[in-house]
Amino acid sequence: MGKGFFQVPVAVNEPIKSYAPGSPERESVLAAYKQLWNANTEVPLYINGKEVRTGNTSDIRPPHDHQKVVGTYYRAGKSEVQDAINSALAARKQWSQMSWEHRAGIFLKAAELIAGPYRDRINAATMINQSKTIFQAEIDAACELIDFLRFNVQFMTEIYEEQPESTSDAWNRLEYRPLEGFVYCISPFNFTAIAGNLPASAALMGNVCVWKPSDHQMLSAQIIVDIFREAGVPDGVINMVNADPVMMTDEVMTHPDFAGVHFTGSTSVFRSLWTKIGENINTYKTYPKIVGETGGKDFIMAHSSAVPKQVATAIARGAFEFQGQKCSAASRAYIPKSIWPEVEKHLRAAIDSFKMGSPEDMSNFITAVIHEGSFDKLESYINNAKQDTDAEVIIGGNCDKSKGWFVDPTVIVTTNPKYATMETELFGPVITIFVYEDDAYEATLKLVDETSEYALTGSIMGQDRYAVQQATKALENCAGNFYINDKCTGAVVGQQPFGGARASGTNDKAGSKLNLLRWVSPRMIKETFVTPTDYRYPFLGE
Ligand code: NAD
Predict the structure, then answer these.
(1) Which atom of ligand 1 is closest in space to residue 216's alpha carbon?
(2) Handedness of CA 132, 135, 141, 144 (dihedral sign)
(3) Of the chain's two ends, which shows fewer C-beta atoms within 10 Å, N or C?
(4) For residue 197, what are the CA distances in angstroms to 84, 221, 270, 326?
(5) What distance lies between CA 35 and its chain's CA centroid?
(6) Cβ(261)–Cβ(184) under 8 Å?
(7) How many of the other CB atoms lie within 10 Å of CB of 438?
(8) How confident is the model at residue 205 (pLDDT cuts 50, 70, 90)?
């Protein structure tokens, strides 16, 4: 540490801009969108601060217009993956010794760069590459990433302040060392903020990283790299490498200095990573930290005392914003028979008013799903629901891939609470509803708890406080983020630390102290002032 007990700025959430018609931010983000749309961007690998280009490239295409190529990204082979690991390990010595206030300064600067000069570009890239509306891009790429960076700096200092008791003759100090080795960060397509936070949180605590972004987020991944570089992250500390995920993971996870994985993505991939770590456990110098935030089958449970319009709004927003491609998106709902007709009426009215199309047209509430694989999966589940006798598609159900990967916001009603779409994560704009008898509340709570393998988010809606209390208790283990009278999405850094258990992840709560603690290996230092010179204790006396 430097010469002083420094205090970092108190973290505050970044205010969300409105982008209302006529606002200056609307015009400037649309200008950035146009510029990036026509820029034919090249995204190289970034290894040891150098741009690396290989012979292996892929196109970047907007999901809402899949014939348009907006850029190219380069993919690594084995040797570039090894270069990235070596570059991280070479940077480790200096970075891990850097005083914390300098690390804090770098990431606080990154936050302000996003809040100011990079805001339009990172939002526009997220709109183009991930098909987010401007509002969804703003709350993710700008605000959430800024919040992660600001709050993590504050959490870091809170961790460092946690020290053991000392006595007059011994001073006890806890030193929060970074991990001995490098951290492998693997990010999903759906949140630009998560892509930035996975390496930044580990690096903030003094670690070096090899970061593999998703193929479907490369445009905004490059802007994250630009921001980190301008903020002063030294060469080699965060190496960004896109490659075939299996090849890359094999290279990384057979390396003796592999010290941890920071993953967000699907449950099946995370399980394969954990298996691979187990297979290679004798190779490593240290037991790797394994952090994974994974899938969900998130629910809205309504009690008969719930206000129907509130329930319908929670479903409309919770299930369909960003086309249901949030790990927290509501994808199953349990509605009592007595209020279902009213809920259905309001839900229908809301969905009828949704407009779908390109995010450049800001009147659109819904855009495309991420890629053809996702489109095909959604279409096949929807087609099955049209055939199956225990399910009915009551709203939406059309899929059109002629221009973009467009799937109508779809509502399925089932008479079978264990129907496939009540259990399986589809990751798209589809919600399945089970209508239950009002007097089966307790049994339905049990169903909610037992229906899926996941435990990420969920909400209870109702005015009857006894019923709310009963649900809060009965659903204790089936959601890591539980909401009362709200939709089950929209966690804010610093307010609702995010993560779930069971098949949904290790629940290390991104954007909290709990997550940062995974990236340190504390060293206890006891310093004795008057060191004994005789082994004999008084009890040994004659
Ligand atoms: P994904 O699992 O397909 O991909 C995530 C990352 O893993 C990508 O970078 C991908 O290239 C990589 N990957 C794919 N196969 C791999 C392999 N065999 N070995 C190593 N890496 C591999 O997920 P996605 O489609 O990008 O994102 C959607 C999923 O992420 C959903 O399941 C969603 O619930 C989950 N998610 C969870 C959270 C959370 O906080 N719990 C947040 C966002 C997304």
Answers:
(1) 26
(2) negative
(3) C
(4) 19, 11, 18, 16
(5) 27
(6) yes
(7) 13
(8) very high
User: Cβ distance 267 to 504 under 8 Å?
Assistant: yes
Residue in 143, 185, 209, 327 annotated catalytic: 327
State the amino acid at position 237 in one-letter form. Answer: V
pTM of the shown model: 0.98
CA contacts within 13 A on the Cβ side of 77: 5
Q: Give the Cα-Cα-Cα angle 482, 488, 491 (nearest 5 degrees).
A: 85
Ranges of CATH 3.40.605.10 domains, the chain: 24-59+69-294+505-521
Distance CA 360, CA 134 (A): 8
372 CA from centroid of ligand 1 (Å): 16
Which residues of the chain does CATH 3.40.309.10 include? 298-484
The Cα 351–Cα 366 span in angstroms is 10
| Closest ligand 1 atom number to CA of residue 214 | 9
User: With 90 as the cut, is the pLDDT of residue 99 above it?
Assistant: yes
Identify the active-site residue in 80, 144, 293, 360. 293
* Burial zone of 501 (CB within 10 Å; 0-12 exposed, 13-18 middle, 19+ buried): middle
Q: How confident is the model at residue 1 (pLDDT cuts 50, 70, 90)?
A: low
pLDDT tens for 32-57 read 999 999 999 999 999 999 999 999 99
Superfamily of domain 298-484: Aldehyde Dehydrogenase; Chain A, domain 2 (3.40.309.10)
Query: 222 C-alpha to center of ligand 1: Å?
Result: 19
Coil/strand/helix, residue 513: helix
Q: Tell me if residue 158 is catalytic.
A: no
Q: Report how far Cα 420 is from the mean position of its chain's Cα atoms.
A: 25
Contacts (Cβ under 8 Å, ≥6 apart) of 498: 293, 328, 480, 481, 491, 509, 510, 511
Ligand 1: centre distance to CA 294 (Å): 7
Q: Do the beta carbons of residue 75 and residue 242 sit within 8 Å?
A: yes
CA–CA separation, 436 and 448 (whole Å): 12
Q: Residue 89 is inside which H or E element, if any?
A: helix 78-97
Query: Is 143 a known active-site residue?
Result: no
Which residue CA neighbors atom 32 of ligand 1 most closely?
266
Give the residue from 227, 210, 33 showing the smallest Cα distance to 116: 227
The domain 24-59+69-294+505-521 having CATH identifier 3.40.605.10: the answer here is yes
Average pLDDT over residues 75-102: 98
Instruction: State the angle between helix axes of 100-115 and 145-161 in degrees (0 to 180), rounded to the nearest 10.
Output: 160
pLDDT, tens digit (0-9, with 9 covering 90-100), for 479-509: 999 999 999 999 999 999 999 999 999 999 9
CB 194 within 8 A of CB 69: no
Note the pLDDT of residue 350: 98
Report the distance separating Cα 89 and Cα 236, nearest Å. Answer: 8
Question: Which residue intervals of 99-236 are DSSP H helices?
Answer: 100-115, 119-130, 134-137, 145-161, 192-204, 218-231
